[in-house]
Amino acid sequence: MHEPTFNGVYLLTTDAKASPSESVAEPSADVLLVERCRASDAIAWQRLYDGHFGFAWNTARRLGLPESEVEDVVQESFLLAHQHLGRFHQGRFSTWLFRIISNAVANRHRRRRVRDFFTGMFSSSQRGAAAPSPEAQVGARLELEQVAQVLARMSAKKREVFALFELEGLPHDAIAERLGIPSATVRTRLFHARTEFNHVARQLGVCS
Amino acid sequence: MNDRDPRFDAAAAAAAAPPPPGAQGRVWERVRAPRVATPWATLAIAATASVALGVGLVTVWRTHPATLEAPAGASKWVINAPRTISTCQSAASPCITVKAPRGAQFTLDTSTEIVRLAVQVGAVQITAADGTVREVMASQTAEYRADALREARDFEAQGDLVAAEARLAEAAQGTSLSAEAALYAQGVLRLRRTQDLEGALKVFEESKARFPHGALAPEVALSALETLSRLGRTAEAASAAAAFLREFPDNERASEVRRFQDAQGL
After folding, report:
1. Which residue, among A67, A71, A208, would best test binding to B if mutated, counting the most B CBs under 10 Å from its CB?
2. Residue B55: how many CB atoms within 10 A of its CB?
């Protein structure tokens, strides 16, 4: 259940369920903190922030955001979360925050693709020449920045599933809970995400 | 399907690394007192005020290029801009540039005979003084820009850098957004492909002079900074970095500039 905001960012109105593998603050405590935040309790807001900063940071990284942009996106996400706290009613704050971060990251990727159209158009051939050949990287371990290059060009839904499975290591059921979709959909989406990852990676010369 | 691909082990470990020291505190300084009012609340206030004052109202909230004509009969527009960039042209002046930080409001006095307002940030809704509401999603400027750049890229792909630059120089004439984009692309061409750093710097300086508050001003400033750095003009690069952070403190690439300053020991 999504609700559009003024700039195209979508926020869950939330029925977010708990994910067993999350290590962030305990959900019922979060709900209480959110309630206090709504009552303009600055200390509650800081506790909520402190309890989820690491989660927000790692989520943004796993979704393929360059480290140079993570701070700004985490900031944007917390500001948006604070602005729309009224829409959070139950469940895990982290699950709700994940949706906000994922949308913010998707916006960044979209803007970067536009920017790259300008700034990268005359350097693409140079980058291509410098990149290792696909053959040389068959079976090689992929570094985060290489994976991020590919994730940035994937669709948002596939990027989410791919990152949660391959980078965060969540099982299918936990991903289903995090994203609010059936487990079977997670498996299907993961299959297509892997296909898209390999396709984009080949295009970029990242790996085969 | 059920097992993780071990190729991603290194990436997964890197993504799970804790945030760098100080990051949590830096971000907290920026989110500790968030602005509570939504843009729509701001808009409602602006709308009420504009109706009371009999002025036009322009609201910008999406992210597609747009061009619009000045509303007939509006003596003044109040613009609520959730993003930074908007540029207008006037009959009296080749290019009047209006710039506002995210969420700010500003006013255009149409006594300067504004004939065209090109807004980088997309669909624009105008409420004129007579109460007429219009929404514009035009993208002529962007289409033209894309065509010119695409042709230049084709030339570049064929190895004809002279033709690519000539096409960009041709498209860079005038004061439109497409001209600004073409001029910037010309600088990037010199910087990345022909390695003409001095030439690139001249183009970026020209862009700053012709489009001081243009839609690509942050990109131009960053490219000029990079060029100065590559030329070894460290003092000027340091000055450019400080100027960038002063002018665009909330830019998404400000953190890169701060890291540049750190690396330079500034």
Report:
1. A71
2. 21
A57-76 residues labelled b (16+ CB within 10 A) or e (exposed): bbbbbbbbbbbebbbbbbbb
Nearest CA in chain A to B123: A7
Cα separation, B190 vs B188, whole angstroms: 5
* Mean pLDDT for the stretch of residues B233-254: 85
The answer to which of A128-137, B11-20, B30-39 has the lowest mean pLDDT is A128-137
For residues B87 and B95, the answer to whether their CB atoms sit within 8 Å is yes
Q: Which amino acid is at A142?
A: L
Hey, what amino acid is at B120?
Answer: Q
pLDDT at A60: 93
Q: What is the ipTM of this complex?
A: 0.73
Confidence label for A83 from pLDDT (cuts 50, 70 and 90): confident
How far apart are the C-alpha atoms of B186 and B170, rounded to whole Å? 10
CB contact under 8 A, A61 and B34: no
For the cut 50, the answer to whether the pLDDT of residue B6 exceeds it is: yes
Whether residue A203 contacts residue A131, with contact meaning beta carbons closer than 8 Å, is answered with: no
pLDDT at B228: 92
B148-151: which pairs have CB atoms within 8 A and are 24 or more residues apart? B148/B178, B148/B181, B148/B182, B149/A117, B149/A118, B149/A121, B149/B181, B149/B182, B149/B185
Q: Which residues of B touch A141 (CB under 8 A)?
A: 6-7, 9-10
* Res A155: pLDDT: 87
Query: Rounded to an integer, what distance in angstroms lies between the CA atom of residue B240 and that of residue B222?
Result: 8
Q: Do A207 and B7 touch (CB under 8 A)?
A: yes
Mean pLDDT across B196-207: 94
Q: What value does the mean pLDDT take over residues B131-156?
A: 54
Q: Token pair 């949706």 is at which residue?
A: A99
> At B91, is the secondary structure helix, strand, or coil?
coil
For chain A, the C-alpha Rg in angstroms (whole number) is 18
Report which residue type is found at A41. Answer: D
| A144 neighbourhood in chain B, CB within 8 Å | 10-11, 14-15
pLDDT of residue B230 exceeding 70, the answer is: yes
CA distance A9 to chain B (A): 10
Region of poorest pLDDT, from A37-51, B85-99, B128-142, B183-197: B85-99
